[in-house]
Amino acid sequence: MKQAIETIHAPQPSGPYSQGVKVGQFIFVSGQDGVHPDGKLAGETIADQAAASLENIKNILAETGADLSNIVHVTCHLSELNQNTVQEFNKVYASYFEHVAVKPARITIGSQLLGVKVEITAVAAIN
């Protein structure tokens, strides 16, 4: 059975989708842009937006009692894919997972994003 995950601590969906969906032992978190829960852009840098995106994911997972350590896979979309932006992104990303023993599997791709520099989606597994 599918269960929608909703929280006021992440941006509200801008279209016909859920912030997250729990199915059995898995949580699927929709793509989170670099914006705050009020919908305002987190900042102009990839670091600011990456942090906001990861905070949104953290807050969506928290609605189910899960946290970043439950994440098994992430897909990271960056509007500019080059060595500098990936390094800046990785610095922020690593800080969120520094205490996680088994880091999530990940793919980072360049994407055409609408008004943001970062969008991250995640899959988590819970007991």
From TrEMBL:
Species annotation: Virgibacillus tibetensis
A Pfam family hit: Ribonuc_L-PSP
Membrane-spanning intervals of the chain: none
Phylogenetic classification of the source organism: Bacteria, Bacillati, Bacillota, Bacilli, Bacillales
UniProt keyword Nuclease, yes or no: no
InterPro entries listed in its UniProt record: RutC-like_sf, YjgF/YER057c/UK114
Entry protein name: Rid family hydrolase
GO MF annotation list: hydrolase activity
Organism superkingdom: Bacteria
Keywords, comma-separated and alphabetical: Hydrolase
